[in-house]
Amino acid sequence: MEVIILYVVLGIVALGLFVLFVKFFGLWFRALLSGAPVGPARLIGMWLRRVDPSTIVDARIMLAKAGIPLDTDMLETHYLAGGDVKRVSQALVAANKANIPLPFQRAAAIDLAGRDVLEAVRTSVNPKVIDCPDATKGKQAIDAVAKDGIQLKVKVRITVRANIERLVGGATEETIIARVGEGIVTTIGSSEDYKAVLENPDLISKRVLEKGLDAGTAFEILSIDIADIDVSENIGAKLQADQAEADKRRFQAEAEKRRAAALAREQEMHALTQENRAKVVLAEAEIPKAIAEAFREGNLGIMDYYRLRNVQADTSMRQSIGGEGQGGANRPPTDQG
Length: 337
Description:
By secondary structure, this protein is an alpha+beta fold.
């Protein structure tokens, strides 16, 4: 019984080894014929570590054919870290053919940083052109205003080359576009008038290049070329007109405020006049009371009272005559006869 069990176990083991042999024989034999041998035990270890053996073998064969010796442990480590082993291997081969120094550690770091290392190598060999501004973001031109108030619309093409050493931690294309746009706005804004810019558009490129805008970026700016420059509206005159309209509304508001204050003051004076007239009427109403009080106390006699009334009557007569004289001054003379 024990012998049968032993035979069964050995059969299962042999079957497993046969399956593994069939599974990895093609990879092992292909790597052996390509001059980049990978042992069967290592292939099985890759499979157990959940590493795709085919990807590692293909990358090792590619590197070996390019004359770049590389241990499979480094490729496995990069694969387990989530890197693109095939892309990194292609970048190493492209850099080797272009005589660009690119060690595996740097290529792996660039890939793990989220950059396309193969595209970076290609850009380093064959510079790329960037449109400024980026039309895909919805902006068609850079707007800048000269000192005379005329607005110019500028389109620029930037030729850049990837800087392999600054790809990790270096700024992207968006930073290049933003810096170049800022430099163009500053250069045009410092020009005396728009004619000077139109006469020498290359001055914009030269001044922008002198600022070293590629510092801290993953690219090296080779040239900045003015693709198009158009004259737009007179922003200075428009701003002055808007300011004048704003000043007009402000002055009108201040004038209306003063008019309202004057009307309020006038109403206050009318009320004060009515108040004073009421006080006069009240004071005149006290006169008869004072005369009666004088009679009761003996301070005023009957003759004094009659003389007071005569004086009042004379005063009323004179006022009446004076009023008639003023009213009849312009009357035509009547015939007395």
